[in-house]
Amino acid sequence: MGLTGVCGALKPLDPLMARRNVAVIGAPPLWARTVWLNRTKVVTISLPATSQSPTPPIAEVAQRLRDKVVRRGICVGCGACVALDASGRSTMERTATGPKPVFAPGTALPELAWDACPGKGVDYPQLYLDHYGRMPDSWLVGHIVATRTGYAGDPSVRARGASGGVTTAVLLHLLRSGRIDAAIVARQGVPAPLEASPVIASTAEEILDAAQSVYIPVAMLDILARLEPGKRYAITLVPEQAAALRRLQHSGHPQAQQIDYVLGPYTGTALYPAAIDSFVRAHGVAKDDPVTSLEWRAGEWPGYLEIRTQSGKVLRSKKVYYNFLIPFFVTRASLQSMDFANEFCDLSVGDAWSPAFEAQGGGHSVVVTRSAKMEALVEEMIAAGALVLEREDDLKATEMHGHMIDFKKRGGFIRNQWRRKIGLAAPDYGMEPASIPPSRKIAELVISTLFVIGSTAPARFVLRQIPESVIGPVFNKLRLSWKKASKPTKRKGLADFRMIVDEE
């Protein structure tokens, strides 16, 4: 068991780490400990044997989370458990597979930390009843008040957004109208270019600075413990985080109840941070030429990955090209989640993938309202010209994302089921598809095999040797061919898709 101290006598190299808890991890020598003083340096401190003293163990709930979720590889790094540590001594530490909780000795967490943990799985049917009072209108995309397509009325906001700029426009309107004091958003480049963190944006410019998509894991809920009493917030979350937040809210957690509006993107896949290192190495960037800026969706929609280095190199890759990173660096959370459309947000927003919108350019979004207050807000913004939206048929909007909805709803269940059969941990969402055609399971076998092979060190090594200018176009052609060939299988039975709720 590691020790935990506070930066004090040891001056942290990174000022952001001042007065932060420091995890002390066991090292091979008997009396040595390795201390992460900042995010790039490691210092090994030798301790005399006499200085070793027993440390209090973490309490039962924290132990359960560490043993059954973190150590078994199903933690999604949301940060909810750390936010629930009343002592404030536990932290979210950055790892190669995203943020993970480090519980300080003696940490006592409430049972709520286990109940709300999306890594082990949140009971979706119960949460539907708690939050909406009934089961969803659509088992594919959740409860729907209204579905629209369109974009932000302000061209500058639209241009800075990942697609139509709708989420950014709504956050700006909430702030300017006094409905919130600040927005909690994920921002790439904080505290370092290759990292991303939640930030509390209390000005319009701070919201605009976080307008871009972030495709690496961010511990958004860790920030709940730092909210100012009496203030009201909006927050942007990915699906598993939104489900966890709703569980906290319905359990009466005070900081969670300060969140008045929850917004989030349609969420398919995220990448481990190592994906960027692989990308820059494949472009011939030396390790002594650090990345100084990273944008996931730069330029005109659908955008491109843009990376700048200290030497002045600028790397750009079309979004449809850098998708080749997914089979090699897709996160475990992406594969185990069964929620694509962010079903517990007040507002869910995704790219409007249709030939008509793609031909127009500029970026269009699918916009789904899920609460009466958000529907009223959207109508208010349409009337004021802040949003340019038109009503869209629910089924038509769903079909724009049929491939990824299937990947989550049926594919996610199949992958989790297979993990359990081979003795691995997997989340339980309290429901399962009523039926899955055998052909769909065969298709999933192909998909999952590629993910397994791609995650190996040899496959990632080979990837680094192939220029993006070669693998990007080749991968995109293969991707389109696979989508076309598998479409009948992946769409079969999807129109009549329904879930069976576990009876316990």
Which terms would index this structure?
single chain; 504 residues; alpha+beta; 8-stranded mixed beta sheet; globular; disordered N terminus
Question: What would you say this structure looks like, in words?
Answer:
With 504 residues, the chain is α+β, with helices and mostly antiparallel strands. It folds into three domains: 3-51, no CATH class; 60-110, no CATH class; 111-504, no CATH class. The protein contains 20 helices and 19 strands. An eight-stranded mixed beta sheet has the order 9-8-10-11-15-16-7-17. Strands 1-2-3-4 form a four-stranded antiparallel beta sheet, with no helix packed on it. A three-stranded antiparallel beta sheet has the order 12-13-14. α4 (124-132) crosses α8 and α16 (402-409) packs across α20 (468-491). The longest helix has 24 residues, at 468-491. The protein is globular. The chain starts with a strand and ends with a strand. The model is unreliable at 1-53 (pLDDT under 50).
Unreliable runs: 1-53
| Backbone CA Rg | 23 Å
Oligomeric form of this entry?
A: single chain
Termini separation: 36 Å
Major pleated sheet = 8 strands, mixed
Mean pLDDT rating = 88
Let me know the number of strands.
19
The number of domains is 3
Structural class comes to: alpha+beta
Per-chain topology:
Elements: E1 3-6, E2 21-26, E3 32-36, E4 42-46, H1 60-70, H2 80-83, E5 91-95, E6 98-102, H3 111-115, H4 124-132, E7 146-152, H5 155-160, H6 166-176, E8 182-188, E9 196-201, H7 204-209, E10 233-236, H8 239-250, E11 259-265, H9 274-282, E12 291-298, E13 304-309, E14 314-318, H10 319-322, H11 326-329, H12 332-336, E15 347-351, H13 355-360, E16 365-369, H14 372-384, E17 387-391, H15 394-399, H16 402-409, H17 411-421, E18 431-433, H18 438-454, H19 457-465, H20 468-491, E19 499-501
Parallel strand pairs: 8-10, 10-11, 11-15
Antiparallel strand pairs: 1-2, 2-3, 3-4, 5-6, 7-16, 7-17, 8-9, 12-13, 13-14, 15-16, 18-19
